[in-house]
UniProtKB/TrEMBL annotation:
It is an enzyme of class 3 (hydrolase). Signal peptide: none annotated. SUPFAM superfamilies: P-loop containing nucleoside triphosphate hydrolases. The keyword Cell division does not apply. It catalyses: ATP + H2O = ADP + phosphate + H(+). This is RNA helicase. One of its GO terms (cellular component) is spliceosomal complex. Residues 73-242 form the Helicase ATP-binding domain. It comes from Prunus armeniaca (Apricot). GO terms for biological process: mRNA processing; RNA splicing. PROSITE patterns: HELICASE_ATP_BIND_1. Its EC number is 3.6.4.13. Keywords: ATP-binding, Helicase, Hydrolase, mRNA processing, mRNA splicing, Nucleotide-binding, Spliceosome. The lineage of its organism: Eukaryota, Viridiplantae, Streptophyta, Embryophyta, Tracheophyta.
Length: 265
């Protein structure tokens, strides 16, 4: 009986790269070869994607927001400010920052690297979401993807491209750098919570947008009064992401519970 040989993805990439080198570098490789190699190489790390990356990618493609990826990218290219209304479970918190990172050139003409900021009103959300996004991008947390909360900075000044941070930390950065010149795109998530820091940021960012035409702003929420924010940000483009991945139901308890966590289980 003929034995089937296992083919490792990493070996395939290395073998393809070696063949390209033997044929005379990039000049000897065909466009098709380059496309195949680039599709399995993580541009953030320069290493082949792991198997878990492809497994997670299939799950990402089932999220409602993934179906409107092209529409969002077109809107981002054509507008300085976008108001995005997405229902809970649509995937906007984890996917939109990755869409932005894929499409925006975060490097200035003089070679300076800029970042994409995603503001979260809660510390726990900033940490947990950043870890999830790092896993989806197949990178290490604290390097290409990081987070900054009070008393803790898990990011790299030289490597981080996407940074999650609380509204208080973004406000503190704005006080030190009024034009927020470190960032190419700023994403305000869960804007409907309207914390004091978030409201102050709205005022500051409106002024920054006037002084920095190259800066883009994305305001996201599950229950946002889009018309009011469109008016506040001078006719910003509004986009809605319908549908939930899982149905959200409210169940009422007939009697008071001592421990609501155990009761839900």
């Amino acid at each position: 009986m003929e034995r089937k040989r296992k083919v490792c993805l990493f070996n395939t990439v290395v073998s393809s790269s070696a063949k390209m080198s033997k044929s005379g570098g990039s000049g000897g490789a065909t466009t098709k070869d380059n496309a195949v190699v680039s599709s399995v190489i993580n541009p953030s790390t320069g290493m082949p994607y792991s198997q878990s990356y492809y497994e997670i990618l299939e799950k990402r493609k089932t999220l409602p927001v993934w179906q409107q990826k092209d529409e969002f990218l077109k809107a981002l290219k054509a507008n300085q400010c976008i108001i995005l209304v997405g229902e809970t479970g649509s995937g906007k918190t984890t996917q939109i920052p990755q869409f932005v990172l894929e499409s925006v050139n975060a490097e200035t003409p003089d070679g300076k690297r800029m970042m994409i900021a995603c503001m979260q009103p809660r510390r726990v959300a900033a940490m947990s979401v950043s870890r999830r996004v790092a896993e989806e991008m197949d990178v290490r947390i604290g390097e290409e993807v990081g987070y900054t909360i009070r008393f803790e900075d898990c990011s790299s000044a030289s490597k981080t491209l996407l940074k999650y941070l609380t509204d208080g930390m973004l406000l503190r950065e704005a006080m030190a750098d009024p034009l927020l010149e470190r960032y190419k795109v700023i994403i305000l998530d869960e804007a409907h919570e309207r914390t004091l820091a978030t409201d102050v940021l709205f005022g500051l960012l409106k002024k920054v947008l006037r002084n920095r035409p190259d800066l883009k702003l994305v305001v996201m929420s599950a229950t946002l009064e889009a018309e009011k924010f469109q008016g506040y940000f001078s006719g910003a483009h509004c986009m809605k992401v319908p549908g939930r991945l899982h149905t959200v139901e409210i169940l009422y308890s007939e009697e008071p519970e001592k421990n609501y966590v155990e009761a839900t289980i």
